[in-house]
Structure formats: C-alpha cells, structure tokens
Records
---
Amino acid sequence: MMGTLDYIWLGVLAVFQGPELFSIFGLPISITLLMILCGFLLGIVVGATPGLAGPVAMAISLPILISVFGYTPDALLPVMGFLIGIMKGATIGGAVPAILFNTPGTPDAYMTTLDGYPMAQKGHAKKALRVAHFASVSGDTFSDVVLVICAPFLALLVEQYLDLPEKTALLILSLSFIAAAVGGSAAKGLISTGLGLLVAFIGTGADFYPRLSMGTEALSQGITLGPAILGVLIIGAVFHELAGQWRHRDVASRPVPQIEIGSDRLSLGDIRKLMPYIGRSAIVGTMVGALPGIGSTLAATIGYTMGQRRHEKRAKLDEPAFGEGAMEGIAATEAANSSVSGANLIPVLSLGIPGNTAAVFLILAADSIGGFNPGPSVFKFTTDAVNPELVIAFGLFTAMFVANFLNWTIGGLFMRSMGVMARVPKQLLLPVVLLLTLTAIYVQETRLEVIWFTLAFGLLGYGMRLLAISPLPFVIAFILGGKLEATARQAFDATGSDPFFLLNNPIAAAFMVLSVAIIFLASRKKPESK
Amino acid sequence: MKKPLFQNTNVMTGLFFTALALLLLFVWIPLDSDTGLIEKVRRQVAIGDALAPTVAALFLLIGGGLLMLLEGKSDTPPAIDAASVKFVARIFAMLVLSFVLMRYAGPLAVQVVNAIQGNDLEYRLLRDTAPWKWLGYVLGGTLAICGTISLTEGRFSLRALVVALLAIAAMIAIFDLPFDDLLLPPNGDL
C-alpha cells in the first residue's frame, strides 16, 4: 500500500539513488545530482552574460541532453534536473552585471541596477553581491516551499471538482488571463494568443485531411513545438538584439568600469535589517509567480516599490535612500524576482498550464522524452500501484531543493566570480547563439525544413517585439491549443452535444464570465508604453 | 534620428490583424477544412475541424479591433525604424544563403572530386564520414556567423572569421564528436 510519505520518499530516492555516475568515499553520486549541479553552474554563467538568459541555455542543451539520456523515463529527472538547475542559476546570475556594470544580465535584474551599481561605485560591490545572493536564495527557497505545498493540493482540487466543461473553461480563462496580463496591452495579448492558437491548429484536427495545410506536405505534418517556440522566443530575440547592436554600432562602446570588489561581509545585523524586505518581497513574488504569464519583472517592480515605501518611513538619516545604493533595495528586488521562479511551476505542475519560459522548456522536455505529462493527473495518489508520474513530480521537487542547497553553499562564491562574463561582446555572442540554436533544433528533428520554419518563426518573433506584442502568450497558446481543442471535443461529447456546455455548468460559466471580465478590465487600463 | 515606418503602428497593426482574421474566417478556414464548425457523425453531432481555428481567428479579430479602437490614439505607439527592419531582412537573407550553401556544399564537392579523379562517390554514403560530413556545416556555418557579425558591425573583420571558425569547431565538438546518433545539418536530409 502506497501512502503520501512513500511517494515523497520515492521521489527523493529517485534523485539520490538514480543511476550512479561515480562514488566519493563509497557514497554513490547519482547522475541526476551531477546534472542539477552542471545546470546550476551553467545557469549562473548565462545569467551573468548580458544577451544570454536561461531560456537560451535550455534551448541549446535540451537536444544534447536528450541525445545523451535517450527517450526513456529514466531520462526525465536528469534532463529536467539540469533545466531546473539552469533556471535557478540564471536567476541569481542576472544580478552580477547589474551590480558590477549597471547592465542587467536578465530583464528582471533591471531594478537591481538602481541600488546595486551605486553600492558598487562606493566600493561595496562584494557586499551588494552578497545581499543579492542572500535575498535571491531566500526568496527562491520560500517560493519552492509554497510550490511543494500548493501544487498537489491545487491538482487534487482540480481533479475532484472540475469535469470536462470546467476544465475547458479553465483553459480559456488561463489563456485570456495570460493575454490580459502579459505585455501590458490586452489587445496585443489577444493577438499573440490568437496567433499561437492558429499555428497550433495548422495540420491537425480529427478529420483525415490536415486542416489549414493548403495541401502542402510541409504544413500537413503540423508545426512541431521546437521550431515554433525556439523561433519566436530565441531567434526572434536574437534578431531584435542584433538590430539594436547594429543601430548603435557607431557609438563608441561604453568603457566597462573597473570596480573594486571590496571585501565587506554581510553581518548578522545586516541580515536582520534585510529580512523584513526579503520576507515581503518573497510573498509578493510568490503570489505573482503563481499566476500564469506574469513575469518576474513585475514582481521585482512591486517588491522594490513596497520596499521603498517601508524604507522611506523607517530609514535613519545617514542611511542611503533607495536608488542611491541602499542594500535594502537590492534585497527587495532580488527576493521578489527570485521567488517567482518556484511559484511559476505551480500552474504547470498542477494544471498543465505553463506560466513562464522555464515552464515551457520543462513541458518541451517532458513532451520530447515522454512518460510525464504535467497536469492534474500527475497527482493521483494511487495506493495499489505506484504512479510513476507522481514519483517524478516529487523527484522534481527534490531537484529544486538540491539546487537551492547548491545555491546556499557554492552559489554565492561562483556568482561573484562571474563578473568577467559582462565583457563578452554581444555582437559576437548573438550570431553564435543563433547558429547553436538552429543546430540544436536540427539534430533533434534532422529535417532542413525545421530550420526554415524556425527562421520564419524567428521573423514572426522579431515582428512581434517590434510591435510591442509579447511572444509569451503565443508560446503558451501554442502549447495549450491542442489540449484545449481535445478537452472541448470530449466535453461536447460528454454533455450530449450541448452547444452551451460552457455556460450550463455554474463553475464553467463563472470561469467564462471571468475570462471576458479580465479582458474587459485590462482593455480599459491605459496600456503601458514600451 | 529614427525614421518611423508608419505614423501610428497600433492602428496599422490592428487593421492588419482584423483583415487577417476576416480572411481566416471567410476564406482560409472554410476552404481549407474538410469539416465545418460542427459535423454529424452517425447521427451524433460532434465538433468539426473548423471550430478551433475559428476561435483562434476570433481572438485575432477581437484583439485587432480593440487595438484600433482603444489604443489607436496611444501617445506612445511602438516606433518602427525602417532601417532596422531592412537590417534584419539582410540578416535573414544572409542566413538563408548560408543554409543553402550548407545544404549543397557537400554534394557539390563530391561531384567536383568525382569529375577530377573519375571516382563514383555518393555524398549520401559519405554523410557520416569525416571530413565530408563537416564540409557543408563548416562553410555554411562560418558564413552564417561571420556574415551576421560583419553585417552587425558594418565591416568585415578577421576577428569575425576567427570567432566563426572557433564557434563551428566547438559546435562540432559538442554535437558531433561525442554522439554517433546525431547528424549535423544538412546530413539528416541527404
């Protein structure tokens, strides 16, 4: 008989006692542990490199990892552990160039520059990096604890109370929420979502003829996940960055200032002073992260603003204000943006709805390898036989805590040595990333067609960025499109072909009303200028 | 000073996606789906293949409409710089050229060798044999990286060529040398 604790223990064992790579003093080291470590270190490196970020590293490593580990369920934890390591590492790595060179390594580290760089200019760069690391890891750990507690409960609630019509309505609600929340313009979010759905429906369907294929062989096979997602997310971003580099090619490159790292330590008194800021930001970041589609940049902004208000009321006269090198500013920002990452996995693991790009790559990995379908069905605590998907889910939670342990122990030291990455010229790095991504896609699908598709989606991604249309709703809608249609078909059949199946059930109707209300309310809001 | 391509990009974008949605709803979806919005299968009504794309088109229609109506008069519509668009078009064209070179360089080299030495070699049989298997990738990849760097910097430099060659060598070391089952482009197609 399997109980909840047995599943948790099996998940822990799957990470620690998986296929052994080598042993240290007779203690076996599993391949999953090593992959988490490698992913974590790579994540810090790419996070600390402006122009690169976690998604790029995930996109490039995924086909290599799949080639190494194959398409068996045993591959799931090492591959996904590596991706989780990247996600965690990139989160703290982004703060390094933000503090040392006033250049955010990742977009969500922008607010870190406001206080981090002034602190570095005053000769306290090391302390600023320590504050960023401490706040980031604290926020991240808190967020992971919330994920582990919430995701199974949410999944159980969904399985217990939601039938097919409600699940269809929930998917529609998620899509409209993402459309309204991402990018600051509901109209553009709807366009991005519509495009994602449209592409998902090309060459698919229940009929013998592959719809919207225009009779062509290339479209009749449908668009696979890799070219569409990597094209829009990575190649589109590379085109956009290259255009920015080209526009400013005549401007003499800004000399990278030599910053004295200093040697200040983070005292117990400092930590006591920072904790209220970290605590508040961690809660805000976790709440923001649990909602699909809302990114860490918003969490960082809210965390920073809240921290600023508190600091204005409580700071002593001789303490620097926010924006002038206050370590509380770094802590508020880093705790908020880091606590998004764990919570962002709540919708993907409990509902199968990816909320951010890291979750998109976890889905891509699960989809490529097989044997694990993120969603409410994962959390079936079967007692008579082992549910392997549940063991994997607890294995993933364990991997997150292993990555956190690495973050607490070696993360700070490694992070502080990464300042050199900000000196890599973007115009040299981006073309290499471009070919690396295209090669990675090709080796997985071995058809030149996928290169053309990826480049075409890259142009679409560039165009979307040019028009200030966020590509994230596109990607999420593309992933959920097939699931939405399949669930709607099943719901329609199950309700005896009731055309109003989304409105006859109170929960489904409430979800539908909410979907419309969210778009309506978001449209009335003045759009954010890009 | 950037020269904007359109005066109000939000209106143009909204108009474009509204037109695309209408085209989808009235032309593409009806003509390119075998079943309609709903269909009758053995006296039972089921959802047809046209329904899902119709929902997608409605998202585009509502989005395009809202963009024109509510954000058309935005003070800060995204400015499109015509020169940047042309630059990305040049990068895109160069990448297409690189992959065409990648695709045909290997087979062409085999034909040239056959013509000179009177051999009867086939690239298909050599696609997993060094150095043939790397020929297209090295030439096309070098052009892609070196060309992109040169276009971005506005000049050709030896540094761009060295970076390209080193990067290609590293990619071969990552993707090809350790794995027997991975094929570099374009060898999976040939």
---
Amino acid sequence: MSYLKPLFKHPRLPKNKLGYTLKEYEGSLSTLCAGCGHDSISAAIVQACYEMSVEPHKVAKISGIGCSSKTPTYFLGNSHGFNSVHGRMPSVATGASMANKDLLYFGVSGDGDSASIGMGQFVHVIRRNLNMVYIVMNNGCYGLTKGQDSATADQGSKSKAGSINPFQAIDLASMAIELGASFVAQSFSGDKQQLVPLIKAAMQHKGFAFLNVISPCVTFNNNPGSTKSYDYVREHIEATSTLDFVPEMPEIKASYESGQSTSLALHDGSLVQLNKLATDWDPENRISAVNALQQARAKQEILTGLLYVNSEWKDLHGVLNTYHMPLNRLDESDLCPGEENLLSINASYR
Amino acid sequence: MKPTNTQNPEYYHKVVDCQYACPAHTPVPEYIRLIAAEKYTEAYMVNWESNVFPGILGRTCDRPCEPACRRVRVEEEPVAICRLKRVAADNKGDVKQYMPQGPFTPNGKKVCLIGGGPASLTVARDLAPLGYEIHLYDEQIAGGGMMRSQIPSFRLPEEVLNEEVNYILDMGIQTQFLTYVDSLKSILSKNYDAVFVGTGAPKGRDLPKLPGRKEGDKFIHIGIEWLAGVAFEHNKSIGKRVIVLGGGNTAMDCCRTSRRLGGKEVKVVVRSPFEDMKASPWEKEDALHEDIQIIDNHVPLSFEVLNGKLIGMKFQKVKALYDENGKRSLLPTGESDVLIEADEVLIAIGQENSFPWIERDLGLEFDQWNMPVVDKLTFQSTHPKVFFGGDAAFGPENVITAVAHGHQAAVSIHLFCEGKNLRERPSPYTNLVSQKMGIHEWSYDSGIAIDQRFVVPQAEKAITLKDRKKEVELGFDVQTAFKETQRCLNCDVQTVFTADRCIECDACMDVCPTSCITFTANAEEPELRQKLLVPAENHTQDLLVSEGLKTGRVMVKDEDVCLHCGLCAERCPTSAWDMQKFLYSVTKAYQMPEPLPQISK
C-alpha cells in the first residue's frame, strides 16, 4: 500500500492569488478506506481554501474521535491542528477561538462524535454562536468500530449485516436551526459542485456555520437498503438551490430571472448567489427553512444546499464584547497598566 | 467524445511514450524493471527480441525514446534508457540458450541479403529460424556494416560488435564477405526467392566545387571513408591541425578519432548555429570534453593550398535568421573572411545513397532523386522479388530505424515466399495483465522516485586519448543502474477503467497527484480538453474517455502527465480502476514462443 504521495505535480497546475497551487493545501495520503466519502469532503475543503486564497498558517483544524476526525491529517497539511477527546472538539475550538480570534476554525466531526457522545458540546457551541465552520461528516454508522447504527441512521435503514434500524434519527440540520445556528447547510460528499461553494460561504460567515454532509461509508454502509449509500443519496437528493459563492461584490447582471435568483450578503459584503430550486423557501427565515426540511423528510428526500443564514446575530466575541486584538497577542505592556496608572486608578476610588 | 476504444492496441501503445517513439518499439519499461530485479539476462533478451543489438544500441543509439520519456514532462531529464540497456548487456549471463536454436528445418526457400549491416542482419535473424537458406554478401571483412566501419571503437568496442553480429551469423547464415556485389542482375539470375538490399548510404558527400579541392586532395578526406580506413587500420595517423566540416554525429566521430590519431588542434567548423547542429547533444558534449573546438556560423569558401600543401581553409561568417515558419537562412555578417589553418581536412557533411550496381532495366524503378521506389509499409520495390531496408530504403537514418525496417521487410519476404498478400500483415503480439496482488498491492514498484538523472562515468581523458580502442564510457555500475531504473514511471502499466463498476465517489480524482482525472459532463474534444481540472493542452497526448456513468457524467483522464503510480486504483473502492501491464511486441516473421521472459524469483 502506498503511504506517500508522489511529489510531482502537474506542470501547468493553476495558482491562486497567493501563488499557491492546490498541492500546498493538501495533507498526507489518506488511510481511510478507499472510496470513503470523507476523502471527498477533505478534497472539497482543500479546493475551497485554495480558491479563497487562504493563508494556510491562519487556519486551525480541530477534531474529536472517529473516521471523520482523522481527516484533518489529510487536508491543509500546512495549517494548525488539534485532535481532541471524543465529542469535545467544540470545547477545544471555543478555547482556541477565545485565545486567538484571528484564525479560521474548522471543526471536523462525525455523526458519533456530534450526535452521540458530543451532543452536549454540540448544542452549546451553537448556542454561543462561536465563529467557526463545523462540518459533520455524516455516514449514519460507526465506521471505525465496524458499522453499528449511529444516532443519525434513519429509521428503517438496513445495515450491512441486514438488521433494520428501529430508532428515529437525529436530524442535525433541523436541530442546529432550532438551536439558533446562524448558518446551516446540508450537502453530499459526492457533489463537490455544491459542497465547495457552501464551504467557501461558511468560511466567510461570521458566526457558527454548520455543514451536515452526507458521506457514505463505503465499507459498512453502502449496501442496498441503507439510506446513506451513494446510490440512495443520489436518488433522493433534492437541492434548495444551485449556488455560487462570490468573494467580492460583483457587477449586477440582468441575466438572472427574477424570483429565481437571490443574493445573500454576508458580513463582509461577499455574496452568496442562489438560484432557487425549492419553492416556498426563504433562506433568511427560520420557519421557512425548518418547513422545507420537514417537507423534504415527509417526501423521503434529502434536502441539500444552503438552508438558513442569519448575518445579524453577533458571534461569541461580539456577544462578549472582547478586545479587538486576539488575546494571545496581548503582552505585558497591554495587560499591565503600570504603576502610575495603577496609582491614579486607586486614587479615583479614594 | 466517444468512449475511448482501448481494444485497439495502438491506444495503450501510445501511452508508453518511450516504446512508441522507438522505431523498433522495444518494450522499454519491461526491461528496465528486469534490470531493477537483477534479471540482466532476461532484460537483454527483451531487447534482443525487439532491437537485435542491445549491446551496440546501448552505446550508440540515437535514443529517440529519451526525449519522448514522460519524465521530461514532470521534471527535467528523461530516464537514461539507452545506458540502462547497456547495463543489461554488460551484466547478462548465458543469453544464447534463449535464442532460437539451430539447425533449423529448411523450408526450401533461398533469400539473398546484400550488405551486412543492421537491416540485413535483422532480416537474417527473423528469417533463419523459419528455415530459409540465407546468403549474405558484404564487401567488408566481417559483418556489421556501418556499425563496424563508421562507429569508432572508443564508442563501440569491437568485441561487443562481433558478439552481437555473430549471434545472428551463427544461426547458419551463409556469408560471403569481401565480396562487392556489382550487379543486381547477376544476383537475380541465381534464382533466389527474394533479395533484400541493405547497402546503407555508403557515399559521403564531398565539396567538389570548392576552390582548392583538387589541389589539396591529398590532405582532404571524406569523413565516413576516413573512419572506415581507421577501423580497418589503413589510416593510423593524422596531421596536428585538423578541420572537420559538418555538424552531425559523423563529424563528432571524425574529430574525436582525429584526437586519438595525433590531432592536437582539432576544430569542427559548421555552417549552422551550435544549437542547430544535427549531432546528439551528448556527442557534442563529449567532443568539447576532449578539447575540440566547435566553431559555428562559418560557411566554407575555399581550401587554401600553398606549394602543393594544404595550409588551411577560408570561411565566411554568417548568422542564422528564421522566418515565421521556422525556416532558416544563413546571411553573411559582413565581417571579413576567416582563415583557419590546418594540415588536414575531414568532410563530414552528410552521406547519400548510391546504387551504381543496380541495372536500370530490371523493372526496378528509381525516382527523380535516383532513389529506388520502395513501399513504406512492405519495403517491397517495384521488382516484386527485391526488398529494401535501412538507409538504402529511404535515405540515411540510424541503426534502430534499420532494425525496424529489417523486421518489416522480413515479414514481407515471408508473406511473399508463402504467396500471401503483403498488405495483410499479422497483428502485433499484445497482452494486458492485471498487476493486482492484494487490496493495495501491485506486482510492480509503484513508488515514484524523485532522483535526478544519474551521470554515466567516463574513463580518464588522458587514457582514452592515447588509445583509440579504449572505450570512453564506462557504463553504470549495478548500484547506480538500480537507482536509475527507479526513475522509470512504468508507463506500460496502464490505468484501465471499467465504467460500470464506478460509483463516482471521486476518490481517484481527489488523490491523483498530477490532477489527470476529471468527472465531468461529456463534450466534444476541444471543449472537453478545456473542462478538465487542469486543461489538457498537450495535444500529442490522448484523453481516455469512459462510457457514460450513472449520473450522466463521464470519467476523462488526460494521459499527459500520469505517473502510473496506481493511487487511483488503490483508492478505488470497487476496482473500477485497475493497473494492468500492457505488452506490445511488433509483428515479426518469427515470433519467439515466449517473446518476453517473466520475472521469476
């Protein structure tokens, strides 16, 4: 088995604004099963960061435990990383963000890591609207321990061994909207055309950006009867919209049909260009987003695309009104006002 | 685009750039792997089956394979294919046991070969095992043709030449050396079933109209004639100051030989700019290394003779201008003419065919340039019994081209003698075998070495310049050879795609280190080439397009910079990708029963 990637690259590989090629955003060779959906998501993250000309040293990847949580090794090899305790990625991410708010935080988790052992952490990080991209690589099973049903496995889904899952599934996207996540999207590892712009928009969103990505487990959950297999997902996929992320303000073109095309502005003025496919859906309205999700579920469809976005809410730093500089960059001169100042402060209380 | 038809053997053949570029289509990666496995005998036989003269070509080949090497497209230097071939020859064991073993049962047919060079010898090798009685005529003292008379011993030791020529002659070829054939009519009257003409391009070009040519004749020689004189030991010395005219490999051989026969100040003077010289870059390098001065952009004006003795040559200085089509013209710079002093001059400005011995009333047509009319596919002349090959067929080329001609001419002669249609040629021998040994295991070494090309060591100049028979290149030692073999990208191990197994998980596209694979909507070729992850701008390389996939897309692979690392197949969950070794052996009159020996551990 190959364990090293060849160092040669395509001689005409394009470069981004920083002069980097896609290669500079890759990680080591994946040790996940061949064909794992997680590898596609890793590749989508690589593609998004490359296209956004992100400086690799300004990114931190934080994960918990599980197949999904191994993936940070396989992308952004030149960025910071922290592989934490099972289900505790949100705590570590919160701590890191508190210390240095200048980094871009990628939280990578799985359905077990987020919907089971880490549910408590998941809920609270949403409540706090931490400024991060939270990706759940959702395959509906515990791949690392041979494919037992996870909490996101759909009721009635058949496992590789043939048993039918008797329990209701936790719908992470609905839950995130319910809990007040300010950016919620759903996608499929096999659809990079949708996933890459979603990741780009999530990176640019200031606040908690949640991406629930269906990612088939080729080894344990890609069998007929499973609702998380490549074939099932492709047959039941339904998109809210086709979308494109535009990092800067574009010229307004009249070619979009009215009523079909919408632009959503994010905090920094960048735009998410949507070409709506679903009717009666407004991505800035929580009720409409939840409705769309529930309707899709009733039709046994998997609704993908951008579901909900709110650019008004403040993120955790905004709520706490923290200092404009990252805390880890404050040195003694910033933190200690000096004897003279201390005396005058003290004097003011006398 | 339509799905690629990989059933056509030429598709995968073209992917093996080196083999495709080789006129004889030697399976290069196959023998390089054998060398890596220390199977030098087998590596030699893979070569011998295909190019007949591995030891000779491993030293002297023009290497059309090397500029084609895929390595050039991902780094700078190609694999040292030619010198690895020599490693196989240098370290081989008993190869004779694998060669066709005579005596062969006669088939009652007689074939005459005129000329004993590489083309004729190839025909002899291919026809002898089929039972043909073969008569070979050559004017020289032994077989080998220009390989003996024109390639100096410091590049090709006589033992190597004799050994490989004798492998063929020992197959029961009836030779008549020191016999100049002066009439094709008399040969045809001997009732041969077929006659093959492999007489090369034996006439060196002269400069008869240049002033002083006649007066200085004693000191002016034709390059190839002079080299033959050296090889057969008629010429043992040369003046101290020598001018060699010409910029090809013969000129390089002339100047380097001069240095060994007493030439102290040897100058190559050439009309064209240095970069445009026809000589192979490594030949020029070797000449410069031996203190030979190469003076470019000088057009010869006259031989300067004083009191019956050559004193030098006059040249006009020119510069090269290129029009928009890249066509070159040499314009005088206007500077005054230059006199270069010399004791002797060697003219090595090209060579020509010459057929004074072929009567023009035999039904064998000649064209306006006095060249025989020869069919490009069958090598048959307009006289059905007479076939041509090597330089004699279409003008001067090189040894490996002569071998390629020889194989095809032998096929034609065999078909002709069997009364069959010469245009219905048997298919090449091909095979496609999976290299899969386990889930992620391949039977070839799929790792990609990033080493730069290794340099072949040379003997000390002080020693080689004293002895014209002392070989300059020492060849790779086996350790370095091994490292060099690891640079080979195994382009013959094909990425074979089966569309109906693909689940479109994108794993191959994500992992491919050189971004060759794209899943996209189909389109016509020009558009499709632009739609790939990295646009496919090298149009000499094909696209592998799959059948339609479930989502309606197609898999498109740009063959251009594929490293054949097997990662696509390793990361494929359904074995839609497989790495399969493609073997292509050119059609030959006598196909060896086991054309390529397998690696057995």
